[in-house]
């Protein structure tokens, strides 16, 4: 008996050695997937094998994905642990070993045994619905000392006195009057990333969740603090939960890149909105609850239709992540901001269908990323905070800066306005809350501050022509006390840049006196007289310091792309973020200032700068043209008078002085020219030097200092035209602007012979140098009888008189222009070109009808910011090839800011045997009201032109009023 007992004990011992107790227990007890197996997968596997990052096409974060397997087939064979790829890889029997050897993680033998036994038991999954994962498998680390929880979000109720303060896992409801906590809502999962009140102030909406697991939004009763609804969804934490103004729909946005719309009444999902490629950081409903806007880490703002879930627009102008978005209270615009430091405002037009919402403003707002923007309840103000430690208050309409609070104690995290819009509150990352009462009077500027323009409208004309006095410099004159004195109103001084001192460059100074506001023309004549001097002129004040001319505040930063620019080229200025720039804006680059003249025609083209065509580019404010390198920084700048207090916007302010190297109008070659307006009564000095600091006997020059006398000359180009019967020929009028005159010039053509028609008057717009007209002849062919248009030998023929008129300092000035000359009449051309409205059927205007010149021109009307369409028709008379009307200059004599659109890089053309084409005209949003004749010119058949069309640019409200 004793021997049998000993054998039994030995046998049991051997069994225990072969099968550990844990294995026996596992074999006897059913292993729970949710409690025992899923945590192992989360710990070791989901970092690389989840639905969002399914390496090897294997997602293990769900039971269904586990059974599905990856690209190598099933990972688990229920009941067969030895053949299951998952078990073989974690035991090292199959390659690669999992977890990877370089991950620093490895399953314990007990964990391997547990997984093996689970597979042996049939790899059973969770029973019923998979429970939501609410906790992370991470260690809990207690802080070493008690510190205030950072404020994550703020909201001030629009209808009562409550302020909601969101922190980690809780929300405080604060009395706005007493600053005392009324109640605290606790137990929320994770950090509460956003808190919002319903429009009526009755509900509080919170968004939170657990990173990497789930997102949760809750609706709370403000009066009682009771939870009314809970919405759990998403695969990651929520950053935004927004309730629609009608209180029917809740929208949630998550780090998982998705948006979910929920029915508040039932608590059920309506639909999911997908399309973002980054976390969704903020959401905003339109005031009518029909549209949702979303801001995302993918650097876009998307617009969605709530009823259908359709995406109506994607605004991709932002350069970096967008973290905050808002509809204006009137529902007419969308605003967003983010990591690119800018606030953008779009006109909201995609209300019922997909449309492009045009950009209205893009303001460089802060030195660092913008954290939040918010409208004041009255809709007049916009608040913005940034981690540059500032709070800024803007005019919500024009995004003009009104008030700045700098040097905040630490990084702000959220901002809100009081219901009366008189106070702003800011929450901080250190857990503190601060109030900032706003000034009683906050008013935006009425517009951009005007610079002291250097044209004839700023000072009266000098009617007399002062006698020019010739003098010579007297050396030494390189110091103010030694300066050569200029006593006459008009002086031409002769000098040489040559120093008797070695290793010291010579400069020459000339002294003159001026009254405040008096304007002077200062220029050199050196290169034009074959001198070796590359002159530079400067105006110094009585102390011998440079005289500031203007302040240029950068409002947008950029850089040159594709290639650099030499000092002459005026086209193809490719610069980063060009879509946010506007014509007539000033572009500053390394001391040179140019002006944008024409938009790029797509991604493979760039801006044209003034004068737009006809030679070398112009520069402004006395700056000189220079070469620019690829990727060189540049800025859109706004001019302000010297002494203006400019609020900081995070971009530089450049002071431009009265100095010049090369004439900005490009009329003097390498010689210098300045127009100087004395800021005050006193003594001033003109300093002449070589820009390279070279010198020598051959570095001679003449310096002219005289009162400014603005004027103009106009030259007609295209005289003695040969005009085909029934067609037209273009001519050009070019203005030479003298002494900085920049106003409009009207060119009149009169005494037109019978049978001819001429564009008149022609307006050379302010700031422009040229305009175009057409002379056309009545369409009677030689074979059909005598020509209606008169010939030069006809007694009825008279020369066409041309005059130019402009108003300078309130005085009307008239100058004769060279004649159009002798007009030679030719037979019918091979191409006749007409423009018609879309309503006209081209069949009805074929043949002779097309050839007729109407008594009145076709009239088209366009509104600023609008695109309209028309047709160009061809009557071919022996020419069947391609007809080209040009590229960026396709519309001849259009008002500045109106251009032929949607033509790409090939321009406006008709292919072989094509007789009609629809073309489009677009007017920039700033184009003023005007009426102007424009035409098309073909490159073929002697450059035939169309009959001009009368284009009206009218504001919408005035057009509506005139139609009543």
From TrEMBL:
<feature type="repeat" description="WD">
    <location>
        <begin position="231"/>
        <end position="272"/>
    </location>
</feature>
<keyword id="KW-0853">WD repeat</keyword>
<feature type="repeat" description="WD">
    <location>
        <begin position="363"/>
        <end position="404"/>
    </location>
</feature>
<dbReference type="Pfam" id="PF07635">
    <property type="entry name" value="PSCyt1"/>
</dbReference>
<feature type="repeat" description="WD">
    <location>
        <begin position="273"/>
        <end position="314"/>
    </location>
</feature>
<dbReference type="GO" id="GO:0020037">
    <property type="term" value="F:heme binding"/>
</dbReference>
<keyword id="KW-0677">Repeat</keyword>
<protein>
    <submittedName>
        <fullName>Translocation protein TolB</fullName>
    </submittedName>
</protein>
<feature type="signal peptide">
    <location>
        <begin position="1"/>
        <end position="26"/>
    </location>
</feature>
<feature type="repeat" description="WD">
    <location>
        <begin position="324"/>
        <end position="356"/>
    </location>
</feature>
<dbReference type="InterPro" id="IPR020472">
    <property type="entry name" value="WD40_PAC1"/>
</dbReference>
<dbReference type="InterPro" id="IPR001680">
    <property type="entry name" value="WD40_rpt"/>
</dbReference>
<dbReference type="Pfam" id="PF00400">
    <property type="entry name" value="WD40"/>
</dbReference>
<dbReference type="InterPro" id="IPR019775">
    <property type="entry name" value="WD40_repeat_CS"/>
</dbReference>
<dbReference type="InterPro" id="IPR050995">
    <property type="entry name" value="WD-F-box_domain-protein"/>
</dbReference>
<dbReference type="InterPro" id="IPR015943">
    <property type="entry name" value="WD40/YVTN_repeat-like_dom_sf"/>
</dbReference>
<dbReference type="GO" id="GO:0009055">
    <property type="term" value="F:electron transfer activity"/>
</dbReference>
<dbReference type="InterPro" id="IPR011429">
    <property type="entry name" value="Cyt_c_Planctomycete-type"/>
</dbReference>
<dbReference type="InterPro" id="IPR036909">
    <property type="entry name" value="Cyt_c-like_dom_sf"/>
</dbReference>
<feature type="domain" description="Cytochrome C Planctomycete-type">
    <location>
        <begin position="45"/>
        <end position="102"/>
    </location>
</feature>
<dbReference type="InterPro" id="IPR036322">
    <property type="entry name" value="WD40_repeat_dom_sf"/>
</dbReference>
<keyword id="KW-0732">Signal</keyword>
């Amino acid at each position: 008996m004793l021997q049998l007992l000993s054998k039994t004990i030995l046998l049991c011992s051997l069994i225990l050695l072969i099968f550990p107790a844990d294995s026996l227990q596992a074999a006897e007890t059913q292993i729970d997937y949710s409690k025992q197996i899923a945590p192992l997968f989360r710990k070791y596997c989901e970092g690389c094998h989840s639905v969002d990052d399914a390496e090897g096409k294997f997602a293990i974060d769900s039971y269904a994905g586990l059974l599905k397997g990856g690209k190598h087939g099933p990972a688990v064979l229920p009941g067969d642990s030895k053949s299951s790829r998952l078990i073989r890889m974690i035991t090292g029997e199959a390659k690669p070993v999992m977890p990877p050897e370089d991950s620093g993680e490895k399953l314990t033998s007990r964990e391997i045994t547990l997984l093996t036994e689970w597979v042996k038991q049939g790899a059973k999954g969770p029973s019923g619905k998979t429970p939501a994962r609410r906790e992370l498998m991470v260690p809990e680390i207690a802080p070493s000392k008690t510190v205030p929880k950072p404020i994550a979000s703020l909201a001030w109720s629009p209808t009562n006195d409550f302020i909601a303060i969101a922190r980690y896992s809780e929300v405080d409801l604060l009395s706005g009057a007493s600053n005392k906590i009324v109640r605290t809502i606790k137990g929320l999962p994770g950090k509460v990333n956003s808190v919002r009140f319903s429009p009526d102030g009755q509900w509080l909406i919170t968004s939170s969740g657990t990173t990497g697991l789930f997102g949760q939004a809750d609706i709370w009763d403000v009066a009682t603090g009771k939870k009314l609804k809970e919405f759990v969804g998403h695969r990651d934490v929520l950053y935004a939960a927004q309730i629609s103004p009608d209180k029917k729909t809740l929208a949630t946005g998550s780090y998982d890149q998705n948006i979910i719309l929920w029915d508040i009444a039932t608590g059920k999902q309506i639909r999911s909105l997908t399309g973002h490629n980054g976390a969704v950081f903020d959401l905003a409903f339109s005031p009518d609850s029909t549209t949702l806007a979303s801001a995302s880490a993918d650097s876009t703002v998307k617009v969605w239709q709530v009823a259908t879930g359709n995406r109506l627009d994607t605004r991709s102008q932002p350069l970096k992540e967008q973290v905050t978005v808002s509809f204006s209270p009137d529902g007419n615009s969308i605003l967003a901001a983010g990591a690119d430091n800018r606030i953008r405002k779009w006109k909201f037009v995609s209300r019922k269908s997909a449309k492009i919402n045009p950009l209205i403003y893009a303001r460089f707002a802060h030195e660092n990323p913008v954290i939040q923007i918010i409208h004041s309840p009255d809709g007049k103000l916009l608040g913005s905070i940034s981690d540059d430690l500032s709070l800024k208050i803007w005019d919500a309409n024009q995004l003009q800066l009104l008030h700045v609070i700098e040097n905040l104690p630490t990084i702000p995290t959220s901002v809100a306005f009081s219901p009366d819009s008189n106070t702003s509150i800011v929450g901080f990352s250190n857990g503190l809350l601060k109030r900032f009462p706003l000034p009683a009077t906050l008013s935006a500027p009425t517009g951009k501050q005007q610079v002291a323009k250097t044209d004839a409208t700023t000072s009266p004309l000098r009617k007399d022509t002062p006698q020019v006095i010739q003098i010579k410099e007297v050396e030494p004159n390189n110091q103010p006390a030694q300066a050569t004195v200029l006593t006459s109103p008009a002086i031409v001084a002769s000098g040489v840049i040559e120093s008797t001192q070695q290793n010291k460059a010579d400069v020459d100074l000339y002294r003159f006196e001026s009254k405040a506001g008096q304007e002077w023309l200062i220029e050199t004549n050196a290169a034009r007289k074959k001198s070796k001097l590359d002159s530079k002129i400067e105006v110094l004040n009585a102390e011998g310091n440079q005289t500031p001319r203007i302040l240029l505040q950068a409002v947008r930063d950029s850089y040159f792309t594709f290639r650099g620019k030499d000092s002459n080229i005026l086209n193809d200025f490719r610069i980063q973020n060009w879509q946010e720039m506007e014509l007539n804006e000033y572009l500053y680059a390394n001391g040179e200032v140019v002006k944008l003249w024409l938009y790029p025609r797509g991604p493979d083209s760039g801006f044209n700068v003034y004068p737009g065509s006809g030679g070398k580019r112009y520069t402004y404010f006395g700056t000189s043209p220079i070469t620019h390198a690829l990727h060189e920084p540049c800025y859109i700048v706004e001019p302000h008078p010297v002494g203006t207090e400019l609020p900081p916007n995070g971009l530089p302010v450049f002071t431009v002085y009265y100095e010049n190297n090369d004439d900005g109008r490009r009329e003097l070659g390498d010689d210098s020219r300045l127009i100087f307006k004395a800021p005050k009564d006193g003594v001033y000095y003109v300093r002449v030097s070589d820009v390279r600091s070279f010198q020598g006997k051959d570095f001679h020059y003449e310096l002219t200092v005289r009162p400014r006398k603005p004027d103009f000359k106009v030259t007609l180009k295209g005289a003695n035209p040969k005009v085909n019967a029934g067609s037209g020929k273009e001519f050009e009028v070019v203005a030479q602007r003298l002494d900085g005159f920049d106003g409009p010039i009207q060119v009149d053509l009169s005494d037109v012979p019978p049978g001819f028609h001429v564009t008149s008057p022609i307006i050379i717009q302010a700031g422009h140098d040229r305009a175009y007209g057409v002379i056309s002849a009545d369409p009677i062919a030689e074979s059909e009888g005598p020509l209606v248009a008169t010939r030069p030998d006809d007694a009825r023929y008279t020369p066409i008189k041309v005059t130019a008129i402009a108003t300078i300092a309130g005085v009307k000035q008239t100058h004769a222009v060279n004649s159009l000359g002798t007009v030679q009449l030719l037979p019918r051309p091979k191409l006749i070109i007409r423009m018609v409205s879309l309503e006209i059927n081209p069949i009805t205007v074929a043949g002779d009808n097309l050839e007729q010149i109407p008594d009145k021109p076709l009239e088209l009307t366009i509104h600023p910011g609008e695109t309209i369409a028309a047709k160009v028709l061809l009557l071919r008379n022996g020419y069947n090839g391609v007809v080209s009307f040009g590229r960026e200059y396709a519309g001849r004599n259009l008002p500045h800011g109106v251009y032929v659109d949607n033509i790409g890089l090939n321009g406006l053309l008709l292919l072989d045997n094509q007789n009609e084409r629809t073309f489009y005209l677009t007017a920039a949003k700033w184009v003023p009201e005007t009426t102007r004749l424009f035409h098309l010119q073909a490159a073929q058949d002697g450059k035939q032109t169309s009959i001009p069309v009368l284009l009206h640019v009218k504001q919408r409200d005035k057009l509506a009023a005139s139609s009543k």
